Amino acid sequence: MPAHIEDYALLGNCRSAALVSRDGSIDWLCLPRFDAPAVFAALLGNEQNGRWRLAPSDTVEQVSRQYLGDTLVLETTWHTAGGRARVLDFMPLDEVNSVVRIVEGLAGETHFEMDLVMRFDYGRSVPWVEKLDPLTLSAVAGPDRLLLTSSVASHGLDHHTVARFRVCAGERQVFSLRHQPSHLPVQPDCDIDQALQHTLAHWQAFADRCPDLGPYSPRVRRSLLTLKAMTYAPTGGIVAAVTTSLPERLGGERNWDYRFCWLRDATMTLLAFMNLGYFDEAQAWREWLLRSVAGNPEQMQIMYGLAGERDLQEYTLPWLAGYEHSQPVRVGNAASAQVQLDIFGELADAMTQAIKGGLPRLPRSAAISRMILPYVERIWREPDEGIWEVRGGRQHFVHSKVMAWVAFDRAAGLADTTEESGEQARHYRQVADQIHRDVCANGLDASGQYFVQAYGSAEMDAGLLQIALTGFLPADDPRFLRTLAQIEQRLLNNGLLLRYDSENGGDGLSSGEGTFLVCSFWLADVYVLLGREAEAQQLYEKLSGLCNDVGLLAEQYDPSEQRMLGNFPQAFSHIGIINTALNLHQAQCPARDRARTG
Known about the structure:
alpha+beta, 26 strands, disordered C terminus
C-alpha cells in the first residue's frame, strides 16, 4: 500500500516531477513530461506498478528529512543501530530527464538496499532489461528507455532490479536514473557533482528573489518553489498538480487528472508571481496563454495541455487498483469540454494585473480581448458547469455570473481615454452593470437576504466569498455579511471550509469529500477585508500548519481523519498560502497597497 498523501516530498525539474515517500520510495514519476505515462505508478497501485525504494536494510531508529535550504534537493537522514547516513534526492535541471540519488555515510556503518521496479505505461508494461556494462542497466519498452547508472552492482530478481551495499562515514554511493527515447543512441550521464551544485544554486537563486514578508517568508518561499516546480519550462504552462486520481474521498470516485493547465489555476498562479515581483514567470505564462486561447472564442477551453494541446480525452486505467482502492483511475479530463464562465473574469483580472504590474501591453492580447468579450456578452445569461466542474448538469451559478461581471468591470477600467476606447469602456461598463443587477435580483435566496450557490437554489457555496474579494460588493455590504454568516454556519467543518455541501450540491457524483483548502484561505482573506485580522491570522496558522514536514499541501483535508486528500501538491492550496500571507502582511503594513487575492 502506498504511503499517506502527506508523507510524500516533491522532486522536480520544471518538466516533470517525482514523489518520494518518507520510507525512501519514489512511487510516482512521469517521463518525459508531467502528463506522460508514469514509469513509477505504485502511488495508484502497488510496487509491481513501478517504484524505486532506497533505504537502510537495518532497523531504522529514526528518520528525518528536509529540503536543503530553499531548494528542491531533498535530504533524508537515517539513524540505525550501526550508523547514520543520508540520501540526497534531486532532479537535475538540464535537457535530460533524470533522478539522482546519493547515499552518504555520516557515522558508523549503515547497510542499504535498493529495489527498483521499472514499468512503463502507468505500470502496465514490463520492460526488457539488460546490462550495458557492469554498472549500467538499460530498460526498454516501445518508445521509452530508462538507464540506471550506479556505483554499486545490481542484479535482477523477479522483474525487480535489486542491490545491497553499505556506507561508512565519509563514503558515498551514487545512483542516476535517466529517460530517453529508445530509438536514439544511449546518452551519457551527467556530471553528478556539477548537477547537484547547479540544482542547488538554481533553486536558491529563484527563492532569493522573494521579498521579505516577515514571519510568513519561509512558507511563502516554499510555496513559490512548489509552483515553479509545477511549471513546464519549455512552454510556461503551469499544471494544477503533478498527480492524477488521488481521491477527494478515500474509496470514492472523485478522482481526477490534474496534470494539465487550467486557465483559472494558472491565472491565480500568475497573480501570485506578480504580487511577489516574479515578472519573468508571469510573462512566460502570459505568452503560453495567448498561444493556447488563440482562435475562435467559442472554442476556448477551461484547460489545455502543457503546450496548449486541446484534446484531453478522459479514460480509465483498470489495471491500477487506485490509491487506497479509490477507483476509477483516470487519465485525461472530460471537464476540458465544459463551459465555465468564471475563467473569462479570471483572465481579464490577470491581464489587468499584468499591465498594472508593468508588463507591456501586447497587440495580440488586446485583439483576443476584443474577440472574447463580445462572446461573453452573448453567453453570460446561460447556465454553465461552474468553478467546481459539476457533472450533474449546468446551472446559473452565482460565482460564474460574478466573474463574468469581473471580465467587463476590468475591461472597462483598462480602456484608454481615446474617443473610440472611451465608447468601448462605456459599453463594457453598461454590460457589467447589467450583470450586476441580474445577480443581485436572481442570486439571492427566496427571502432576498443572502446569496446562494445558483439561481433558485437554497445551497451555499464557498465561491461566493469572491463577491467581496473581487469587489463585486463591498465586504461590509449587508447582503454579503449575511452570505458570509451562512457560509460559516453551513460549510465550516472543524474550522475549515467545504466548497459546497456534496450531499445536496447536485454535482452528479456520490457524496462526501474533504474540506477544500483554498476556500479556507479565501475565508481568511475576507476576514482581512473586514478588519477581523486576529481571526484571519488564526485561520492562516491553522491552514499553514496542515503542511507536511517539507511544506507541501494537497487539494483537500479531512479533519476527522487528519489526512490530506486530493491531488498533490496542489497549486490552488499553495496560491492560498502566498496570497493570504501577502494580505496579512500588508494589513500589518498599511502603507502598502493590498494585493487582490482571488
